[in-house]
Amino acid sequence: MGHKFSRDAKNLIGSPMFKMLARVQELEKAGKNIIHFEIGDPDFNTPEHITQAAVDAIKRGETHYANSLGVVQLRQEICNTTHKDLGWLPELNQIVVAPSISFIYFVIRALMNPGEEVMVSDPGYSSYFSAFDFVGVRAVTVPTFEKNNFRLKAIDLEKFITPKTRLLIINSPQNPTGAMMNAEDLTIIYKLSKKHNFYILSDEVYGKMTYDKPHKSISIHDQCKEKVILLNGFSKTYAMTGWRLGYAIAPKEIVEKLGLIIQTVISNVPPFIQWAGIAAINGDQSSIKAMMEEYRKRRKIVVNGFNELPRISCIMPDGAFYAFPNISKTGLTSKEFAEVMLEKAGVALLPGTDFGPHGEGYVRVAFATSLDNIREGLRRMEKVLKAL
Predict the structure, then answer these.
(1) Using the 8-state DSSP alphabet, how is residue 344 labeled?
(2) Roughly how many angstroms between the first and final C-alpha of the chain, as a whole number?
(3) Average pLDDT value for the chain
(4) How is the chain split into domains, by residue range?
């Protein structure tokens, strides 16, 4: 007997990353050895002082309901670290705590009506698109190009603004390309948001994961008091993906609405997890430096390795832990390439089209795995490519 779902449920497409991960795990259960390039999950353990803070919080009874906006101590520390990292100090009533990815849905739900338009770069993070479909808003994709290192350019963006434009999502450093936006484009884009009256959701979860130049935040233009909503989290920087801890900084009126949505959907983030976040902000930051040194080595091996493979080229990403190799000269589509590598090489990666139509001709490679695994994955891929 078939089930009758709501229109919104029918529109759900989910995350291609987790769909691929589930498929890979089934192959591994069947005995196949797979090199994981498909999922952006750091292979480092959460630093010990962070996990210990959570254990200590549980032992002292931090296991009950908490303020839906987040515990005051964590929100205050987020204010302080924002001041230190970005040069401006938000007010406490601008901070709200929840899993980072949930804010994509929450912000769209709070600010947009079905049929209104949200602009996003293409290629862009695939979970954005799933949220758009679920809410019923119209995605307007703004192409980015390899010749510009996949940076979202203000001159390209402006052509897509219409009277229905309500929100722009920017992501820098970016998933899936590792691209970083420059200060000039950010300034122009902020002016466009004022001129055309749309909000900007700035996804900066990889903000501390840069290589050759510092991260720039569009939030400096209004300190998240008018048009900008800043999204950040602990998953990538502190290897805390399983903790599901993030935060948004926004105008206080929007924070109030986000808090009501959190009350309705999840009540609150478990307080002992929030105390782990406090320890992450206040504790030893050397783990970030150590992880980034390792990612820098991996980035070099990945990019050089793909450039040495037959009919493949790869530019150097500016941040995060993703590379976006160009596979168009292999004669395979992105999906075909990913399928061949999974089945014949035992290498799991994602087709560029999982991140938008302009991802055709590319694949995403997450180098959140060991150097040995990276070298083995490249070796396997070379063997398959030479046999094509």
Answers:
(1) I
(2) 45
(3) 96
(4) 7-45+286-387, 64-282
Burial class (CB in 10 A: 0-12, 13-18, 19+), 115: exposed
- The label of the residue with tokens 């192959």 reads 27
Q: What's the pLDDT at 133?
A: 87
Polymer length in residues for the chain: 388
Residue 220: how many CB atoms within 10 A of its CB? 16
User: Tell me, what's the pLDDT at 24?
Assistant: 81
User: Which residues of the chain register pLDDT less than 70?
Assistant: 1
What DSSP state is assigned to residue 210?
B
The two three-digit tokens of residue 182, written as one number: 């420059």
Q: Mention the CATH class of domain 64-282.
A: alpha beta
d(C-alpha 132, C-alpha 148), whole Å: 26
Q: In what order do the strands lie in the sheet containing 165-171?
A: 95-98, 246-249, 228-233, 199-203, 165-171, 117-122, 138-143
What are the Cα distances from residue 41, in Å, to 119, 146, 238, 321, 365?
27, 25, 11, 10, 12
Q: What is the dihedral of CA 45, 46, 49, 52, to 10 degrees?
A: -100
Residue 352's φ and ψ, nearest 5 degrees, are -60, -25
State residue 1's pLDDT score.
59
Q: Please calculate the CA angle 206-352-244 and round it to the nearest 5 degrees.
A: 35
The phi and psi torsions of 141 (rounded to 5 degrees) equal: -90, 130
What is the CATH superfamily name and number for domain 7-45+286-387? Aspartate Aminotransferase, domain 1 (3.90.1150.10)
Residue 201 near residue 168 (C-beta atoms within 8 A): yes
User: Which among 297, 320, 331, 386 has a CA at the least distance from the CA of 42?
Assistant: 320
Q: Name 31's Cβ contacts closer than 8 Å, sequence gap at least 6.
A: none
